Amino acid sequence: MNTPVFDFLKDDVYKSVYEPSEDSFLLIDALENDLELIRKLNPSICLEVGSGSGVVISAVSKVFPSAYCLATDINHVAALATKKMAETNKVTVEPVVTDLTSAVRSRLLSQVDLLVFNPPYVVTPSEEVGTQSLQAAWAGGIKGRQVMDRFFPFVPQLLSTKGLFYIVVLKDNNPDEITEFMFGQGLKMNNVLSRRCGIEHLSVLRFENG
Ligand SMILES: C[S@@+](CC[C@H](N)C(=O)[O-])C[C@H]1O[C@@H](n2cnc3c(N)ncnc32)[C@H](O)[C@@H]1O
């Protein structure tokens, strides 16, 4: 899975957008590791939540050009960046400005084959969560889980029967608790890839019906 070109992000217009970083590349590498599995799905609908610059969903769209790729973000400049990323890399992605998947959920129920989320996961004070600025990219509040925990109950509703959900988590997020919650929702977990990035220990978890 090639990393899309993203030089255009240097433009000041995009200064509130999360620049592709080690976590973004870890997610792309995890998808690459699982490419055979994902290919077997022959995904029709791919959705990225919190697409930021759009680097991940554009990489996905490049490999699966016939899939319908959507990307949501709470930051409207991120949606513009995602659009520009897709155009620059000659792929098609529909950007949507919304909280998590609020604006698209009803039309995607049980239809998403590939769902990806590199969420704000850093442990911060709760007040820093959910702003419209760059802070929204990393501020995860209590346990770094305030944004992702709101999303987890929607995952089983969105996934198709064969669908796969990939999420980036930090050790501080307590992945065991997440796995236990998702197990209660009927989803089993596999740890696809872990990497130490500076002081952070990041993993990409895959969930699927099981
Ligand atoms: C860690 S960044 C990841 C960006 C990109 N996916 C990547 O991997 O480079 C998290 C992204 O989630 C977005 N975000 C934060 N809270 C959100 C919410 N409630 N709904 C949708 N997007 C959100 C942020 O604006 C940011 O673009």
TrEMBL record:
SUPFAM superfamilies: S-adenosyl-L-methionine-dependent methyltransferases
Top-level taxon of origin: Eukaryota
Gene3D superfamilies reported in the protein's UniProt record: Vaccinia Virus protein VP39
Cleaved signal peptide residues: none
Keyword Isomerase: no
Domain (Methyltransferase small): residue spans on this chain: 43-125
Keywords, comma-separated and alphabetical: Methyltransferase, S-adenosyl-L-methionine, Transferase
A Pfam family annotated for this UniProt entry: MTS
Family statement: Belongs to the eukaryotic/archaeal PrmC-related family.
Name assigned to this protein: HemK methyltransferase family member 2-like
